[in-house]
Amino acid sequence: MDKPKYQRVLIKLSGESLHSGESECLDPEMLDFLAREIRQVVQHGVEVAVVIGGGNIWRGHEAIARGMDAAQSHYMGMLATIINALAMQDSLERCGIHTRAMTAIKMDEVAEPYIRRRATRHLEKGRVTILAAGTGNPYFTTDSAAALRAAEIHAEVILMAKNGVDGVYTADPRRDPTATRFDHLTYMDALSRGLTVMDSTALTFCMDNNLPIIVFNAQESGIIERIVMGEQVGTLVSNRGGYDGK
Questions:
Q1: What is the domain-level CATH number for residue 218?
Q2: From CA 171, how far away is CA 105, in angstroms rounded?
């Protein structure tokens, strides 16, 4: 297929995907790798938005378990996503990609405020748009932010990047060698089975708004390009039917 299957996508990256696995919370090599992967997609004329988590810098649930106020912890996590967004922006721009970072928390000296129409205009102009600070509200994850922003900007699909796992499995394949991968799931299947796609609030939102999700391995070279060009990889989560629509 020479023409991309999708013209506008939202990529959800976890904060852990930017982690070196050692003491550094940001891995420059991984940032540059992801920037090159996104550049391949942009070169096909695909409009790309990115939502990044902050788990490599701040683990809110651990702080809450130690007694921190939940809302306070969530706001700290939002700030962590802004750090990651700026790092991703730098890597993309060094790859020659025009980029805009937008944040749901007002921080004019650092990034543009998130305004839906402005974000859409950036995408129309071919700029990769990084959407940081989640929804700007505590108690909502960056998964929920990805679902909400995808609906707002009319993305055709959410590309849900996982670390070292190439889709959704019956169990964690890193722990259970008998786990098998799903090629396709409905939202209700994923919810009823408690499978790791995204949090239940975000998944329900995608179901209600008919937003398909493709879960893939972020560490596999060229996979984002293959997805936008229509190749059947990873796990598709949608209302009904698989990649062939049946």
A1: 3.40.1160.10
A2: 36
Asked if 216 contacts 231 with a C-beta cutoff of 8 angstroms, the reply is no
pLDDT in tens, 197-225: 899 999 999 999 999 999 999 889 999 99
pLDDT over threshold 60, residue 54: yes
With respect to residue 98, please indicate whether it lies within any of the assigned structural domains: yes
Query: For residue 18, what are its two tokens?
Result: 């930017």
Domain membership flag for residue 246: no
CB 99 within 8 A of CB 92: yes
Integer Cα distance of 85 and 50 in angstroms? 9
Domain total for the chain?
1
Q: Is 3 domain-assigned?
A: no
Strand partners, 100: 129
Q: For residues 186 and 113, what is the distance between their CA atoms, to the nearest angstrom?
A: 35
Q: What is the reported pTM? A: 0.93
Cα separations in angstroms, 138 against 54, 72, 183: 14, 8, 34
